[in-house]
Amino acid sequence: DDLAAQHAQGLALCKAQLEKQQSDAQRQAEEDALFMGELEDKVARSMEKVRALSSELTTVHSSYETAVATIARLESDVAALKATLEKAVADSDRRIKELKAAHATALSQQEQLMQTQMQTSLRDLRDRLTSQHQAENETLRAALAAEHQARMADITARPLSATTTLTEKHTQDLAAV
Q1: pTM tops 0.70, yes or no
Q2: Can you tell me the distance from the alpha carbon of 55 to that of 53, in angstroms, rounded to the nearest whole number?
Q3: Distance of CA 75 to CAs 6, 67, 78, 82, 98, Å?
Q4: Would you say residue 96 has pLDDT above 90?
Q5: Cα pseudo-dihedral 83, 84, 87, 88, rounded to 10
Q6: CB within 8 Å of 151: residues ≥ 6 apart
Q7: Angle at Cα 35 formed by Cα 34 and Cα 38, nearest 5°?
Q8: What are phi and psi of 158, to 5 degrees?
Q9: Quick count: other Cβ atoms within 10 Å of Cβ 60?
Q10: Residue 158 DSSP code
């Protein structure tokens, strides 16, 4: 009996342990199921975040490609503008040199023209003054010749002592002319 009681007690103990293990296993299975549910929810939320981030990354990548294309276009535009500016500066420099050369030529021509006009004016003035001087000289010579003839006539009509003084005066007048 003792053995049967021990056996019954061992069986009861085994049954209790088995029930406890089953209870623990069921509780563990429930906890695992709850954990798996929470994990699945977390995985689903993470996947949603991954999809959102992937979409955002695609948008950012598209924006990046657009920005790179825009930068390349802007660099091309800047290079074209730089070339246009350099050409405009070179054209301006060339035009300035041409204008300076034309100005120097025009200035030289104007100086030559002014010199020629001045020489012509001076020549005309000299010719006029020479002609005027010759006319005045001829008038003065004619007047002096007439005066000379009048004095000579007067001298010949006077006595010899008065003639010497008048002749000296007449010689002085002629020397002055």
Answers
A1: no
A2: 5
A3: 96, 12, 5, 10, 34
A4: yes
A5: -150
A6: 166, 170
A7: 85
A8: -100, 170
A9: 11
A10: S
d(CA 118, CA 17): 142
| Torsion angle, alpha carbons of 108, 111, 112, 116, to 10 | 170
Task: Give residue 112's pLDDT band: very low, low, confident or very high (50, 70, 90).
Answer: very high
Separation of alpha carbons 43 and 37, rounded Å: 10
Around 87, how many Cα atoms within 13 Å sit in the side-chain half-sphere?
6
Question: What secondary structure letter does DSSP report for 52?
Answer: H
Task: Provide the token pair at 91.
Answer: 């054209």
Q: Are 56 and 64 in contact (CB under 8 A)?
A: no
CA angle 10, 14, 18 (to 5 degrees): 170
